[in-house]
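Hi Y.,

Following your request, here is the sequence exactly as I used it, all 548 residues.
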Amino acid sequence: MNSSPRSCTPNTQTWSVSAEVVKSKPSPLKVFSWVLYDFSNTIYSMNVVTMYFSLWVTVNLAREDLWVSLGNSVSMFLAAISLPILGAISDSVGRRMPFLLTLTLVSVCGTMMIGVIGYCVHNPYYQILLAVLAFIIANYAYQGGLVFYNALLPEVTTPDNIGRISGYGVAMGYLGAIVGLLMVLPFAQGEISFLNLSFRPLQGQWQSVAYVDYQPQNQKSLWNFLDTKIDKNANYRYQVIAVVPKDSLSHRVTIFKSTSRDTVITLADRQKRAVMVSWMLPSDATVREIKQFQILRQKSGWGRVGIFIPTAILFLLFSIPTFLFVKESRRGVSGQIHVDFQKAFRDVVESLSNTKKYPGVLRFLIAKFFYEEGIQTAIIFMAVYAVKVMGFPNNVLIPFFIVTTTAAIFGSFFFGFVTDRLGPKHTLLIVIVGWIICLWSLIAANDKLLFWILGSLIGVFLGSTWTSARPLLVSLVPEEKLAEFFGLYALSGKTAAIIGPWVWGLVVFALHPYGDQIKYRAAVFALSLMMFIGLVLLFKVPGKRFQK
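Below is the corresponding structure, written out as tokens. Let me know if you'd prefer a different format.
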């Protein structure tokens, strides 16, 4: 069987397919194993990048946001400058899987090291330096793995189902986000509070930590207690009970419904974590007999630092089927493999500049940079917008995220079929238009129910973006150059992930005197403008398919 690449002619209506694809359709096991990697790596991205690392650094360790920005920016910068080169090397040796396996293992080890450092390194300066370094390693390897995972897409698809299979992968990724979040919550909190599930082996004994005197002349209904004598890594549950005289006619324990939230305070010129406990007074007659409130505290779970090792294990376990059952075909490589870094770099530069040979690729990557600036920034700051503009309490954010992620799953499935029906370019145009309409509606929204609806629609379009964008790139380049161009695809996305948040931050900073309502709505408008530029550029990207 001749595995050397055939000659190709762009701008034709028929797909080129290898002899292997013609003879045998990829097996369901191979397809499922490829899709499962999306499930596994999104467990990492949700638990580490989105939810816990930034909170652990800025709240538990009471460090500045700069440390989180540094870790993200450095890992993204390293990915942006190196992944196109690694992609070109992958194409030159005709292999994807060794790169994917190596980077996955590095990411897993880096994630584990964050947890080990959190537990074992007690010097605060060494702890933050080593934790950020471990995050840079883990996140760089995660981002790098995506390049070679995406480049395996033709191995598990045919021209007729590439959109659907890509959609299945994206949908499984969002399912992984939900499952991963739920699977590590017991380690972080010892419970899944909104499902009323408690995990007793992960919970300690209740202990009394303070008494707060009740003053009848103080008619306030909301009471607060600031708990400062805490372990920086521990997670706590609180109870507030009434202390009444023993001879009281209603001699019974009254437990008040309480909430708690982390905060950062300054003591002796040093910032440290504290917990604010709040509770409401009931309106019944027993209030008149209260002398004190007793504050009880229980360690529950291992805290935010406790999720890194379980997340790494889940990432590794769910990625194993990909390495066992996705067998890639060798592409024209025989004998000793020689890696030429200079040639790889020249290939990347040539691919970027030679738009006549690969028409539309450069325009697509630039368009992707602009629309992904809006998308990546919206992902990072949606929770901030929900709290500061819409007034969402913290305990609503996780259910809100689960709802929007569920919508992303359905959007990925649905638009996978739309991609196969209309083609990836037209589907992506529809999706970006949907994004812009949702962002403009978000600017005008004041009702919380409308925000839930818009959040769900954004979830639908979020999943649909990746579902249609990957097949569009596949349609623009020859199969033997996929890893190289998915490296450039990553370069575009990672650069957007660096610059987009800076645009948001500058708008918010410039409009700070006008208050949260104005500055954050203006920041959303700035995102919509970036996406509109991407939409205009995308119109001129060829929608026709590559033929060998």
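The longest strand covers residues 270-280.

Thanks again,
Q.
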